[in-house]
Specification:
Layout: H1 4-37, E1 48-52, E2 65-71, E3 78-79, E4 83-89, E5 92-97, E6 100-102, E7 111-115, E8 122-126, E9 135-138, E10 143-144, E11 152-155, E12 158-161, E13 166-171, E14 197-200, E15 205-208, E16 211-217, E17 220-230, E18 236-246, E19 260-262, E20 265-268, E21 276-277, E22 283-287, E23 298-305, E24 308-309, E25 311-312, E26 316-318
Parallel strand pairs: 1-25, 5-20
Antiparallel strand pairs: 1-2, 2-22, 3-21, 4-5, 4-23, 6-19, 7-8, 8-18, 9-10, 9-11, 11-12, 13-16, 14-15, 16-17, 17-18, 20-22, 23-24, 23-26
Amino acid sequence: MPGLTEMKSEMLNWKKLVATATIITVAVAAVWIYLVTSYESDLGTSNVVVIDSTLSVSNDMTDNQLLQLSFDDDAEDLLWSSLEISLVIDGKSNTCSFGSQSNSNQTSSKIETNLGADGATFTTIIDATDDEEFTYFELAEQLEGNDSNYWMKFSSTDVFLSNGVNWTFVENVGFSEINEISGLELSSNVDDRLEWYTYDMSVHRVNPNDGVYVFESNDSWYKLKFLSYYNSDDDSRYPTIQIAALNGTIFPALANPDVVVPSPCIIVTQDSDLLSWNADETISLVENGINLCNSECKIVVNVEFETIPVEIGDSEVNI
């Protein structure tokens, strides 16, 4: 039989093993928690917006230049389709675009549409929080549909297409790179769900696959890019998608006053290329037939790129 000394030694070794295992477990858990809580999205930009009010005018006219915006050094070009610019004046938000903005009085539903600064591309958020019932999306109208009128249906991570929708996925391309349909081979299979994402086990995040979907139905063509599975509060089950028409398709949502209305503030640029806000480009924000700033006013500037706020040197200006 082992002596008392040997038994004490074995017990001490066992306690050391348990303590070591506990320390390793806590350390691994701490690293994992850090990775999850410190996760940063690939969306957005490091650009910094600079505001210039030296040429601003505030009177009772309705076509005054309000502000000029540019980027600080070391900036990148930003697609207008992914940009949203708004001015908060007297507590009211006013979108600036090349013509139209989303109607802020849209009926509350599980579909939230936001028209980009280009006036042609929607960034649409789908409430897919119900894992037992689908949210139906009428893509062309940018409205909530039903089980007999939809292009796509969502529930949690599940996305299915309606009968009659033909589709393809073009891998590893940017949204702006898909401008024509020649050479595309479409599938009519809508029985299987779209495999639109991968799951990152290390941080427990759903990440959209890199690429662009092209959909066709009744000779109407659209391109879509999944941006995120999360809303601005980082809540999951809110797939966020960029959507624009292709091949000369008339986008019905753009003609629906319940969905879009004229912007009270327009973007003016000297650049003939309206694809991007270039890194060295200065833009002007001008009243569009509405007197937004009469006499003196305080303006708070908000800019988002790919749904992520862009840093602004000094976002509050008095003119």
